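Give me the 3D structure for Putative threonine synthase.
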Amino acid sequence: MQHPAYLDPRSGRTWPLSEPRWCGPEGQPLLLTDLPGITRADIAGAERSLWRYAAALPFLPDARISLGEGCTPLLDSEWAGAPVRFKCEWFMPSGSFKDRGASVMLSLLRHQGIEAVLEDSSGNGGAAIATYAAAGGMRARIMVPASTSPAKTVQSRSLGAEITLVPGSRQDCADAAEAEAANTFYASHNWHPFFLQGTKTLAYELWEDLGFRAPDNVIIPCGAGSNVLGCAIGFGELLRAGQIRRLPRLFAAQPENCGPIAREWLGEDAAEPMPTIAEGTAIARPIRRAEVLRALRDSQGGAVLLSESEIARATRGLAERGLYVEPTCAQAAAAFARLLESGEIREGETSVVVLTGSGLKATQRHAELAGLALD
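Predicted structure for Putative threonine synthase (375 residues):
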């Protein structure tokens, strides 16, 4: 197999990994060329973090930036009257699944000589980049919309990240970050293909969790789609390595108020984005929309659009079972119920619902849903 390289999946052009880059010459999003995957024998069994799958990465850094991320619980449970397994990805140092991508991306970038990074995120992405930059002795600048509540940036500020407030919308903030990328390396969790090399470890972990078998279905909250793509990449590698016989079906859960990927999958007209309690997936213009749709299609999966009331009920229902998560990821549980009802998923199948972020990130929202007043 050829050496790993950056890949423009839409044209097939490649570039060597020797030069750090976050996009193609025309500003197009990049992936990496296909990697061969690993076998059970390649797992570093003594390592209790996602780095047990380091042999699956495009190259190994001189020194990893790790805080024990990965190896999250997979709980046998029941939802909507059917057996389900909840993958508790909020059991991470910064409180969300994005630690997988941040740990791998910043480790590989630091190996390439990058010492300071730029990110745009007022939520989990920014917190994860700030966390791993601090752990790795790197400087981080996080750009956020000026309207962002100060409470949402406390975590990143406390970790030493520089916060820059950008007037306008979330999209205005992303545009400003791309323009600033000429001055500081843009280590965007939405753009950089190394981030997906971290999120793909979820697939390897589920394979190991289930006794080195693939699940039948994986239901995933989806905004820009890094977890959907990570699972597609990871399970694709396992298939190439002969470790699984088929791909699991991947299902993307999105809110009706801002679900462009699910709308396109379902053949519905585009709609103007509206506020949603699933704010972590409220990405109006996902840059890898075509790649996410291809991952759903290749896995014979699908997408679900959820009402605000469905997401709220799922958030409360999970909390009543001791699973205190963000509404953003509770929509995966709501989607599982809908897929069961439609018959697209059957009760006897092995289904994994990915819960991505801690409810501690959404205290105000939980208070509102529970009818509680915060002093």
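The mean pLDDT is 95. Let me know if you want a second pass.
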